[in-house]
Design a protein that fits this description.
heterodimer; A: about 350 residues; alpha+beta; Immunoglobulin-like; 7-stranded mixed beta sheet; 5-stranded mixed beta sheet; 17 strands; about 35% strand; B: about 900 residues; 7-stranded antiparallel beta sheet; 30 helices; elongated
Amino acid sequence: MTKRNLFYIITYFLAAALVFLGTMFYRQPLLIVLLLLMLLLPVMSIAATRYAYTRLEITPSLPSGTIQLPHDLVVKLKMKNPTVVPLLNCELHFHYENLYLPNQIKQTIVLPAEARRENTYRLPFKTSAAGMFTFEITKLYVTDFLHFFSFSLPYHWSGQLPILPPELELPEMKLTKATIEAEDSQPSSDGELTNDLLQLREYQPGDRIKDIHWKMTAKTDELMVKEYDRARDLYYLILPELDRDTLQDTLSVFYSLGLKLLKAKELFRVALYRPSGHTFEICKISGEEELLIALYELYLIQPEIRSAAYHRFTEQYPDMYGVIRIASGKVVPPELIESY
Amino acid sequence: MPKTIQLSRPAKPPKPSFAQKKENKKRQAELEQYGLSLGDITSSRQQNRFFLCFIRAVLIFMACFGMLGAVVSSFGLKYSIPIVVLGLFCLSLLSAFLYYNKVSFYVGYFIVFAGFIFFSFRFYWHINSGYQAFSNEVFNKYSDYFHLLSTREATEFIENRYLTVTAAMLFMGWFFSILLNITISGYMDLPMTFLLTFLPLQIPFYIDIVPPIPYLVLLIAVYISVAILGRSGHFALPYRHTKSQFFDRKRSRHATKHTYLASSHGMLTITICSVIFSSIFLVLTGAVFSGDFNGKYVSNRVKDTTDRFVKAAVQNGIYSLFDRYNAKGGLARGQLGGIGNVSPDFETDLIVRMVPYSSESIYLKAYTGVTYDRNIFQPYAIDSTTDNGAIHQLTQDDLRDADAEGYTPQLSIDTDMTLSALDDNNNYYSKVWICNVDADQGYDYCPYYSFYSTSTHKTISPLLADKAQILHKEALGMVDSADTIMSYAPGDTQEKNVYEILYLPYSSSVSYAPNPTVTREYEAFVYNTYLQVPDTLKPVLETFCTEAGLDNLKSLYPKYHRDATGVYTDREFAIPQTEEELEQYRANQQYRLGVAASLKRYFATNFDYTMTPGTTPRDRDVVDYFLNNQKRGYCAHFASSATMILRSMGIPARYCEGYMIPLTAIMDGTPISTDTENWMLGTDALSESGIVEVDVPDASAHAWIEIYLDGYGWIPYEMTPPSSEETAVSLDLYSLFSGLMTQTRRSASNSSNSADSGNTLEVADQIGNSIFAVLGGLKFLYRPLLILLGVLTLFLISLPIAQKIMDAFRVHILCKKELYGDALLYSYRKLLQGFRRRKQFVAKYPTLREFDGWLESHRERFKDLSSDEIRILHESLQRAAFAKQHFDHTHYQCAAAILSKLGKGMKKEKK
């Protein structure tokens, strides 16, 4: 879409009208020449701009790897104009935000694309919160020399970069492994969650719908349910509760605890709660890479004002106990584990 | 390992400026609110500051040299191109590099101004002469263009024009480079640059002179460059920007715009492209220049009107354009004070054929001012005695008839010792033929002591003409037939008023013998009519008479003073009959002429003659302002003031306008014939020169006074002093500029002007006083300014109210769009702003929990608010922020009511 700058167009043609009046008044050939020039300039301005902007190259880039607080990050914009026509007003509309802290402020940067040059512009960002940093160029306008028209170019670019929370020194605490009722987990010999099928039996009131063996039901015309031999008390299970107010602390503690367990060569699980569907995803963490993936997953979850994660967890997994909560930026050990 | 010793102290980080501090605060707030803040954007390419300044210097040079070269070359003046180019380029560099850094900015300006002043003093006469050379050329070209008869030559003290024009160009270049530096380097502002450089080009344009193309190429290239760079915004020097090194950052509530500050490469490219483009374009369109476009020129009303103003401005400077009514030469019809500058066009108004008869200037009277009221001498009188006290106006016809019956105003009979008696035995008459070419057609222009006119106007009373039929039969024989009269007139006579007048040749005298025809009744009328002074002027005139020492003359005032009621009541004519009466008659005459002479001397000593006095402020009386403030003026000022002063001293006087033909003009007139048979009866030494034709220009228009002498009648009296000699130009900066803006006038124009004062005029530069006059003239602006100030104050006062209305309107609009959540959040934000403004709440972005906590801690203030309400508000705000789709009108109304209570609590605290 081309934007018309009516103010400039009107003022320009008003000026031309004044020159025309001057011409009528003076009857001076010079003013006719000036008038011709004024009529010619917009055409030339638009033609030259069109020629140049089709060849314009813009390459944005985010820093590679991860950024950990309190480090800053720099976004680079490389702009190359291979033509002899300078484009003095390239207007980039961009947007940046931490997904946890939505930013409504629109950003515009006006850059010159100098003729036959390649310039790199550095956009330095200070960060104070962990989360998913997103940078998105939404629009690119190139304005002609007289500012009559701003030509919208089909350009869109976006990138994401996770910002890791700072690693904290956690106090020594006694953590108990949780009894986990894992769903659909595969049986294994090294203490993994088991999911051994004990028997198939007829449906009884109180059975879970998800345990219904639909194939057998179809064959026998009776509701058949699967009964498992469920494994218990095997792994650490961490449940981060993302309260809006204490989000950053929760993230830091979660990350630090994860690292600490990994250093101690402990495998653990993370229960990721998605408030939108009230669902949980339990991720297995066996190395730093998986910890980061879990963290990135967390970054994409919108926190609640007061997290209902634990409440939902106990609802959905009534048999599970010993879960390690991270609530209000603190580790809440499963104190009642012995009672199970 | 050897220790390293740090010899130099670590460099201190530069102290942040106010703008930087403000920006840092905003960034910090942004960081807290969004967890991210964008710092100073930088570029991989460091802009070369020197190069940026250099390009701007090039632009300034192109504008400066293009404009000056175009103007000067248009008038064919030669100058040293290498010196001017080099000089202007250096000056442009100097100006442009003022912006190099802060030190150069503050120190550099001082150096530039000091250098400018030094140059101005050192080469004062060169510059002045160069300017005069330029103005002479301009005036010559304009004179040719407008076919002006007069020529004017400003004094060039140094005659080497090549040298002086070069110096003047450097001077003007210096001046303009400073101005253009502001418009180009500072703001890259096309309209101002265009005005500064294109307006001077109007001087040649107006008279169809096209400047040489190379200069126009430079100018057009500058216009294109400045337009493009100005709009791009990439011209500012980084260091000058307080916020960032590379980018300008403009913040609004919802958007932030970062604009790259300077692109030296872009500037260079644009400048080069502009020069190439304008060169090619102007060369290609050169054919148009050679076309005779003006051959088809058709005059239009606008151009004609402008021509009149330009003509006046050419001859008398810009000042003449500020007159309140027509300021061209000719009659003012008694209107005073509105003309700031007499600007005659020196074209012929009257053609006069006559036989010279006197060595004095000849007055051709047209207008008589009787009653002075509101800066106008009206041609009618207010008679307050003849109608039982009821005031009624005497028309011009009444006055003329009264004069005719009194037998005095136009015709003083048989009295002057130099004249033979005007009675049946009189044999000395003369005739004048007048063709009105361009003078006011509403009047006839009659010499003194006229008694018969062929004009259709009734300037001379029919009563007088009837008397002339009886008294001057033989003179009437000199009158030509209508066809003959018309045949003398040149060109088309249809539009001209041509007539002949018979008159008695008159000369002034030391004393005047009694006039037996003056009636007592007429004298009563004179005393009733011509002593009127506005009450408001009386104290002013009294003070002036005391200061001028005119009061002392009262000792000479004859004890016997005739007035309308006191004497001669027993006789018809007002002439003295006894020896004692004759003595008193002479004493009275001596007194009146003595007072007039003293006043004239006082004017000559303490007042200045000028054709550019400036206008009188609208709310001031012209006589008062002239006597007390202005103390400078032209004939109308002196004549009107003298009339009032004399009247205040009991001497009947009146104000006259017309034309005055100086002797020099008569002597330089074109001889028509030596046969004076039908032109003069009687003999006179001067009549031997024959009949001469004199062109009377509008510059000969004049104002003078008439004094009434008891028992004799009216005599013309000249009150305008000759102008002082031209004052030496003092060597200060102010006079330098005033010298540049005014001219020394000589030759023909002076001879025209000389008619005004009777001497050769040299109009001195008096700009200093003019400035005060102009300021005084701007007094009428005070009221609008006061009103403007009042409106502004009201606006400022109403601003908070307007803000509240706007807020309410915005909430209303949001509700109308069913954005109830946004409406509540907007109201909440405004409420928080209110708390913060009143310093009741510190945090800028408080969380709801913080706000709740604060409310709890200030429960006393918000007693009306229950805990439930606070909870409801909390929930509503949460819902409005995070679940807008579930926030409806009912929620909004409930929460808005609670917010309103909070607002009341805030106001309570204030009280």
